[in-house]
Amino acid sequence: MSAPTVRRRQLGRTLRALRESLGLKQEEMADRSGGALNGAKISRIETAKTAASARDVGLMLDVLGVTDDVLRSSLLKLTREGARRGWWQSYRSVLSPEYEDLISLESEAEQVSTWQPVMVPGLLQTNEYARQIIAATAMGEAVEERVDALVDVRLARQSVLTRHAPLSLWAVIGEAALRTRTADARIMSEQLARLLSAGKWANVTIQVLPLSTPPHVGQTGAYSILGYGAHASLDVVHIESLTQALYVEGHASVAAYQAAMGTLRAQALSPADSADLITEIRDQI
Question: Quick one: 271 and 191 in the same domain?
Answer without folding.
Answer: yes
